[in-house]
Each structure stands twice: as C-alpha cells, then as structure tokens.
C-alpha cells in the first residue's frame, strides 16, 4: 500500500520538479564520485611533492579535497600563494602552492578560513611546518664571497645562524618554512645574473628529509 502511495505521489509531481530532482541526484553522485576518485588517484598515482599553504601538508588528503576554487590565493594578504602548473602533474595542476619569490607566509590563517572543503585544515601555529630552508652553496653570496647576512637577520624564528666561516646554517627544529629567507635573498640581485631562478636559500618540501641543522 505504501509503495503505491509513493508511486502516486511521484506521478503527481510536476515534470520540472522531477527533472530538478534527477539533476540534483546526478550532480551529487558525480561530485561524490569525483571526490572519491581523486582520493584514490592521489594514493595510486605518484605525484610531485609541492609546498602547500599551511594546513595542506597531508598530500593525499589535500589532493582529494581541493576543488581548485582559488579562494585561498585570493585571500592571501602577502600574495605568496600561486597555482601549480600542468608540468607539476595532472593531479597537482591548478592547486595552490607557495611561491616565495612573491611573498612569505606569516600563518595568518586566512587561507584556511576561506577553504570550502577543509583541504587546508586548521593547524597548530607552534608545530606547523611548510617546508625546510636549504642553503644553495653555489648561489649563496655568503658561500661565494662572504659578507651577506640578509637571511640571518630576516628570519622571524631565529632559525638561521652563521658558522665559523660566516656561512649560513639552518636549524631544522626552528625553521617553519615560512619563506622569508628566500623572499629577501639578494643572490640574484647583487650578483651578476647567470640564468635560472634559484636563490641562495630556498624552501624545500620536508618529506624524506632528516631532522637536524642543514
């Protein structure tokens, strides 16, 4: 009896309502399939590890949830968030990445606040790390001619010091990967340009790195 009532109720629905309901169900099923599919692909397909905004350090979860809406980039007050390219892999294309030539991260949390899917999750400011700063000895002014302390004085976490030869050393315990050092590095400004974009110190993904001074 109840089944007959249900069929009668559906037959009395306007065609527009029926189509709207079908469309909604199809879109919902498609979105769910895409969500689950991206999560599966993120686990199955090897993809390049990139520097993500704070809260996006779980690579598999991030790829599965990010909908490429670009809200985090628009909300970033220092303009440090850029978009990954197709060359970074199909899964990574148009997802947010950190570009420390454009700015640095002060962990203001605005990108997390506007993320609609929590691909960028709430983070602990005391423990969050975006990456690890690494000195590029072949480009660093202090390694080539000494006398440069720009990254040492600019680091907001006192994670960079000078050794006995006046070379910068990064303490991985203190470094949060904020990118300030890379942003202010004058290696490609004070020295003659020799091609490339690598500065004297760059932030790299932590994955696979050992803890300790660099």
Please characterize this protein's 3D structure.
The protein is α+β, with helices and mostly antiparallel strands. Among the domains are: 2-44; 132-204, Alpha-Beta Plaits, CATH 3.30.70.20. Helices cover 36% and strands 9% of the residues. It contains 9 helices and 6 strands, in the order ααααββαβααββααβ. It has helices at 2-12, 15-44, 59-65, 71-75, 110-114, 141-144, 150-154, 180-184, 187-190, and strands spanning 81-83, 96-98, 132-135, 160-162, 168-170, 201-204. A two-stranded antiparallel sheet has the order 1-2. Strand 4 (160-162) and strand 5 form a beta hairpin. Helix 2 (15-44) runs antiparallel to helix 3. The longest helix has 30 residues, at 15-44. The chain is elongated and about 70 Å long. The N and C termini lie far apart (75 Å). 28% of the residues are buried. Mean pLDDT is 82; it is low at 28-40 and 208-213.
How large is the share of residues in beta strands? 5-15%
Percent helix: 25-40%
Query: How many beta-strand runs?
Result: 6
The major pleated sheet works out as: 2 strands, antiparallel
Provide mean pLDDT, rounded.
82
Side-by-side strand order of the widest sheet:
1-2
CATH-assigned fold name of the domain at 132-204: Alpha-Beta Plaits
Run of helices and strands: HHHHEEHEHHEEHHE
Q: Which shape, going by the Cα principal axes? A: elongated
Instruction: Using the CA coordinates, give the radius of gyration.
Output: 24 Å
């Amino acid at each position: 009896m109840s089944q007959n009532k249900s069929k009668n109720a559906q037959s009395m629905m306007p065609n527009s309502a029926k189509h709207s309901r079908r469309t909604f169900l199809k879109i919902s099923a498609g979105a769910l399939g895409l969500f689950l599919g991206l999560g599966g692909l993120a686990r199955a397909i090897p993809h390049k590890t990139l520097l993500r905004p704070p809260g996006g350090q779980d690579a598999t979860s991030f790829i599965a949830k990010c909908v490429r809406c670009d809200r985090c980039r628009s909300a970033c007050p220092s303009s440090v968030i850029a978009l990954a390219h197709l060359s970074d892999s199909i899964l990574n294309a148009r997802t947010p990445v950190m570009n420390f030539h454009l700015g640095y991260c002060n962990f203001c949390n605005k990108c997390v606040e506007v993320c609609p899917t929590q691909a960028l999750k709430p983070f602990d400011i005391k423990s969050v790390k975006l990456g690890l700063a690494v000195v590029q000895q072949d480009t660093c002014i202090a390694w080539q001619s000494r006398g440069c302390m720009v990254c040492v004085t600019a680091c907001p976490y006192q994670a960079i010091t000078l050794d006995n030869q006046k070379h910068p050393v990064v303490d991985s315990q203190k470094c949060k990967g904020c990118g300030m050092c890379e942003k202010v590095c004058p290696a490609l400004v004070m020295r003659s340009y020799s091609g490339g974009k690598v500065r004297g110190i760059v932030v790299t993904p932590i994955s696979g790195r050992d803890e300790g001074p660099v």
